[in-house]
Amino acid sequence: MSRRESDEELRARVWTLLFDYSIKHITRDYVEFTENACSELCNLSTIPTTDPNSLYIPADPFDALSNIIHLGEIPPYEEKIQSNPDVAAYIKTSLGTRKGKPKSDRVWYEDE
Predict the structure, then answer these.
(1) Distances in Å between the alpha carbon of 60 and those of 22, 23, 46, 49, 74?
(2) How far apart are CA 105 and CA 99, in angstroms?
(3) What does the DSSP assignment read for 94-107?
């Protein structure tokens, strides 16, 4: 047997041994992995957020929060509007209006 043939036989033997090992331990069959993951996800059941055997009705989260931080004791905010005569004059000049009746009134009530 020549050296080349013995090398090819050795290479084939190592390849078959390592191929089986790598298929079993190193690589992953992604099709099988995805199928298993999907089947596990489809078999999950929902977890209730409240105890179905409880004798009490669960509290509203907003009511619980308002009781914890005492929202009822906070006085409502009273905004004090401050007006300046210069601002009012500026708004009147920049948003100039026409004198007389509006166009809708002039169209509706025609003088005959």
Answers:
(1) 56, 55, 21, 13, 20
(2) 13
(3) HT---SSS-HHHHH
Whole-number Cα distances in Å, 107 to 1, 100, 102, 111: 114, 13, 9, 10
CA 17 and chain centroid, separation:
50
SS3 of residue 35 by DSSP: helix
- Backbone phi, then psi, for 7, in 5-degree steps? -65, -40
User: Is this structure's pTM higher than 0.90?
Assistant: no
Over residues 57-68, the pLDDT tens digits come to 778 889 999 999
- Digit-coded pLDDT (tens) for 91-105: 888 887 777 777 777
